[in-house]
Structures are given as structure tokens and as C-alpha cells.
Amino acid sequence: MSDQKTIGGGSLLIAWQLKGKRVLIVGGGEVGAQRIDSILATDAHIDLVSPSARLHTRTKQFLGAYPARITHLDQPFAFGDSSIDVGAYDMVLTALDDNDLSRRIVEACRVIRVPVNAADIPELCDFYFGGQVRDGPLQIMISTNGNGPRIAALIKDRVKGALSGKEGEALVRVGALRAKLKERAPGVGGELGKKRMRWMSRVCETWSLEELGSLGDEDVGMLLDEGWERNRVPAPAEILKGSKGSFWGKGVKSAGALSASVVSFMAGVVFARVAFSVYQSRR
Amino acid sequence: MSDQKTIGGGSLLIAWQLKGKRVLIVGGGEVGAQRIDSILATDAHIDLVSPSARLHTRTKQFLGAYPARITHLDQPFAFGDSSIDVGAYDMVLTALDDNDLSRRIVEACRVIRVPVNAADIPELCDFYFGGQVRDGPLQIMISTNGNGPRIAALIKDRVKGALSGKEGEALVRVGALRAKLKERAPGVGGELGKKRMRWMSRVCETWSLEELGSLGDEDVGMLLDEGWERNRVPAPAEILKGSKGSFWGKGVKSAGALSASVVSFMAGVVFARVAFSVYQSRR
């Protein structure tokens, strides 16, 4: 009944929206730099509270590279300081060695229901971070719910290894195809909306991710001319004549298996040749 | 500098904590059932507001299977109704056909900063859901940030295909090993804490995930006796003598490649045999 192997005991994995929001990060050390990296994936503005002397090299690099994204408040966090009001933020992340200060910040956030994460104090966190894989619009998070960070890294490698690296591009190109289709057949919902959705689904079912990712701007036009306008789904080879990306992608993947078969076949030939020689020499 | 291929434009993927929390789901249709499924992965209690007549079959199954987890309020959602106060919840999810009612619920939540998701109205959501893969303590989320649900399903299949199915068990067994190690060498932090962490890391680096997942309770004791007590990392074969889990796991994986090679070899033999026959018959 449930799609899940396991009921209970887990977290709710969600994609939090931070466009136009403000995030406060308290602490600019190594963990603070990790937090900045996570928030840079979104479109939030970051206020970083940390004395300059305590900034990690990576934090300094972020401040230098993304001045429009990060405002550095060169001071320690102090309660009663009018310049830092946790209520002014949509999310607060502490990355401090001082657990007592972290706790007090979390309590202040909790009262006014500002989502908060305190590094290294899981029982105080509204949410945890996890291993992240990103490729354009594609984001993948791997959470072990606090069990074994070392294994989490191994699982992240497996997930990365499963991707061809074309998935993000496929999402972008399908988005472009959908946008162009909407220009040709505009309107929201209704019969036309359903027809658009059906045709898009058929294309995504027929074409591989790698083929979708290889769709150039001209290909998109041709796919609409030859496909949408004629109510059919052209084969990828019909449209992607120009670009060999798809073919080579598959070629590289199967080259290993092919060469193994060739070697086995040759071994069989040699084995048979030797066996016949032995057989004939003894006859 | 950043671990990420892409800066900006994304969501913040997080693992939200709901242990001991209360979640309100408004609407018990098909999407409502999906929401119940998502929350059942956590330890939150669910209040479901929906007239009985509007419950999806799957929702009814959830209500029957998890009565202690879900309280069904058999009524439509109405403002001013004293029995439904969004402020009493830690999270609110609407799954309604009535967009206006959804909007009003979201606005009520926003004022008091209760995290809220409104199905089909992305611009009103604090967070989105995504494709989920779970195996015990392991949870993976795939988000395409609203681009192409069809492709999201294909990517989910790729991620699932990359897992051996032993990852969750490996996390559980490493957790058991860590717990037993802490019994033998108790205490928080300090030199002993560092030594424990180093030894655990070495084990996780030397053993494969599948081997870690095959650790039985007796194996854990032997690994501590032969490993931790002697400050070394025994080879998996030294400890896992009894259990063949690891061997078979690998065996199944390579069986396909092996049989392909055998077939190629035999093909080579047959080819050579025929070639010799032809050669001899013409001589």
C-alpha cells in the first residue's frame, strides 16, 4: 500500500523554498562555510555573523566570490544587539563551537517559529542537512538520519555513478521543448492542455534521457514540426541527425561489455585450435 | 570552491524532523493519500480533515492500517470551527480541489509561521515534495524543482538501480557495531573518542557496504575482539566465515557478465570447429 519499504523512524525529506528569503548564518568556520555552500544553491540572501579573525579560508573565498549574495557582519553574535534580530530572518543556521550560545539562539528562534539548525546539536534542529548531488535543476539529497557519515559518502558515490551527467541537461531541454510547445498551442488546461501533456509524455517515454539532453534549439523546432504538428513522436535519429552526442554516449557505455565478449570469443577460437592440434597430433 | 555544479536557482534540500510533532492534512483524496504516505515515514501524528465521502481508497486503507498514527476528523475544513486551529500544528498540508480555501489556509499558516504546502499551488508552498527512495535509515530525495515529473521518475529508477539493497542494512549494522564499541570503550570525546572514530572509519573504508550489511550479532563481537582489541582491521573473510550473504550478493551481480563471457567462449569454440571442418573438407 505504501510506496515505502519502512514506516516511521524517518525524516520528511523536502525541498525548502528560499527565493527572496533571508538566511542568518552564525559562525564562519569550516561548518559555516558548508552552510554558505548549501544556501548558495538557492536564491536566498545570506547574512553571516562572525568576527573576521574566525573566518575559514573557504568562507573568505565565498565572501569574495559572491558579494551580492552574502553580507558579512564582522562581529560576534550577541543578544540584545539591535543589529541582529533572529525574527528578521526566514531561517537561522548556527555553526558555533559555543553550544550554550547555539542553544540560546535556537530557543529564541523556536519561540517565534523561525526554522533553525544548530550544527552538532541534532536534538535542537528543526531539520538536518544531508549529502547533496546537483546537476542544474536536478537536486538529490542522501540522508542517513545521522547514521554513519562515512557510509553516506559511499552511497552518494553510488548515486553519482548511476547518473550519466545528462539528466540536468535533459530537464532543461525538455523545459525548453515544453515552453516552445506552449507558444505554438497556448492556453491553460482544457482539451488542448491535455493533448500537450499527452504528447510531452509520449516524447519522454520514447526518447532516452541522453537523447532528450542532446536536443539543440533547432532540433526542438524540428521535433515540433515533425512530431506535434503531425500528432506523432519522431524517432530520435530522425531529429538528432546533426548531433552525435547521444550515439557516442551509448557507445562508450557498451564498449566495455563488447570488448569483453570479443576477448572471450577469441579465447574460444584459440582453445578450439589448440584442442584440434592436440587431437590431430595424437591420432 | 563550491561542491556544487550550479549556484542559485535551486531549493534547499533538508530532512525535516517530525518526531513527536503534529501534522494537519486537509483533504483525503488521491493527493491526500500521497501526503499521508510521506508523513507515515516519520513519527509525527496526523490529523486528517476530510468528509468520509471524499476519501480515496488508499486513504481509507491508511486509516485502517495505522489507526494510532492518524486521527480522522470527518468534516470539511471550515474557518471559525473551533476544532481545527492551524496554530496547533507543526506543519500543514492542503490537498484540496478548492484553490481559494487552500489559499486561505496557507495565509492563516503564514501569519503564525507554520510550515505549509499547498498541493498544485507551488507559489504558495514553503516547501515541495519530491521522489523518495527509502531503505531503513537511508532516505534519498530526487527533486527536479518542478521540471518534468516524467523525467523525475526515470531518474528515480536510475538511483534505485544504483543501490544494491544492502545500504540500509549496512547503516543499521554499522550502528550496532558503533553501539557495542561504545559499551566496550565508553565516554564522550577525548582521546578514546577519537580512537573509536578512527577505528570505525578504517572499518568502513576497508569493508564494502555489502560486507558491513552482512555483519551478524556474533560477527560484531568477533570484529571487536579481533579488530578493536588488537588495534587492527580484520579482513571481511576472517570475520564473515559463517555468512555467505556478501559472496552471493556479489555473485548475483557478476553472474550476467560471467554467462555472457561463457556464451562468447562457446561461440568461439563452435566457430573454430566449423571453420576447421570446412577447411578439412576442402583440403
From TrEMBL, chains A, B:
<dbReference type="Pfam" id="PF13241">
    <property type="entry name" value="NAD_binding_7"/>
</dbReference>
<dbReference type="GO" id="GO:0019354">
    <property type="term" value="P:siroheme biosynthetic process"/>
</dbReference>
<dbReference type="GO" id="GO:0004325">
    <property type="term" value="F:ferrochelatase activity"/>
</dbReference>
<dbReference type="InterPro" id="IPR036291">
    <property type="entry name" value="NAD(P)-bd_dom_sf"/>
</dbReference>
<feature type="domain" description="Siroheme synthase central">
    <location>
        <begin position="135"/>
        <end position="160"/>
    </location>
</feature>
<dbReference type="Pfam" id="PF14824">
    <property type="entry name" value="Sirohm_synth_M"/>
</dbReference>
<dbReference type="InterPro" id="IPR006367">
    <property type="entry name" value="Sirohaem_synthase_N"/>
</dbReference>
<comment type="pathway">
    <text>Porphyrin-containing compound metabolism; siroheme biosynthesis; sirohydrochlorin from precorrin-2: step 1/1.</text>
</comment>
<feature type="domain" description="Siroheme biosynthesis protein Met8 C-terminal">
    <location>
        <begin position="168"/>
        <end position="234"/>
    </location>
</feature>
<keyword id="KW-0627">Porphyrin biosynthesis</keyword>
<protein>
    <recommendedName>
        <fullName>precorrin-2 dehydrogenase</fullName>
        <ecNumber>1.3.1.76</ecNumber>
    </recommendedName>
</protein>
<keyword id="KW-0812">Transmembrane</keyword>
<dbReference type="InterPro" id="IPR028281">
    <property type="entry name" value="Sirohaem_synthase_central"/>
</dbReference>
<keyword id="KW-1133">Transmembrane helix</keyword>
<keyword id="KW-0472">Membrane</keyword>
<keyword id="KW-0560">Oxidoreductase</keyword>
<dbReference type="InterPro" id="IPR028162">
    <property type="entry name" value="Met8_C"/>
</dbReference>
<dbReference type="Pfam" id="PF14823">
    <property type="entry name" value="Sirohm_synth_C"/>
</dbReference>
<keyword id="KW-0520">NAD</keyword>
<feature type="transmembrane region" description="Helical">
    <location>
        <begin position="255"/>
        <end position="276"/>
    </location>
</feature>
<dbReference type="InterPro" id="IPR028161">
    <property type="entry name" value="Met8-like"/>
</dbReference>
<dbReference type="GO" id="GO:0043115">
    <property type="term" value="F:precorrin-2 dehydrogenase activity"/>
</dbReference>
